[in-house]
């Protein structure tokens, strides 16, 4: 009798923990065509600790965004597909505000923050923060095969998946997918 009760209690606890864990990160399968070639992470790896830099030259890391999902876009001003998707990424900042997700566009431009600032001014990019991946340290740490590459991290800093190439970041289908993937409601 006691063994049956303990087994039942154990089963209930495991079920509750499993439901709680699945609430932290949702379903990242069945990505819509608007998100391009999204590949769910085969193994959930932690975000790297290598620094990137803000407009003032201050070193930052992904740890500066505790408890926030991250949409990390690796790009450059000289990359036509990157330029194409940058306005949609800028709009995504506002669209994911309720999820407290941070959209981080890390430029690999060798000229650094000044060239990114000029690009943002010319293209009316107003919501994205100027961030620079000096010497492509983050790009290499994330093993990005090219630009643009966007990696989605959950609230615990674990990779959920990535897109290599262009995506329609502000499309309703993409937004619903990201919300579902990040554990929220579509």
TrEMBL record:
GO terms for molecular function: antioxidant activity; disulfide oxidoreductase activity; RNA binding. The keyword NAD does not apply. Pfam families: AhpC-TSA (PF00578). Keywords: Redox-active center, Repeat, Signal. It comes from Candidatus Defluviicoccus seviourii. It comes from the Bacteria. The lineage of its organism: Bacteria, Pseudomonadati, Pseudomonadota, Alphaproteobacteria, Rhodospirillales. This is Thioredoxin domain-containing protein. Residues 1-23 form the signal peptide. PANTHER family: PROTEIN DIPZ, THIOL:DISULFIDE INTERCHANGE PROTEIN DSBE. The keyword NADP does not apply. InterPro entries: AhpC/TSA, Pumilio_RNA-bd_rpt, Thioredoxin-like_sf, Thioredoxin_CS, Thioredoxin_domain, Thioredoxin_ResA/DsbE_sf. Residues 41-183 form the Thioredoxin domain.
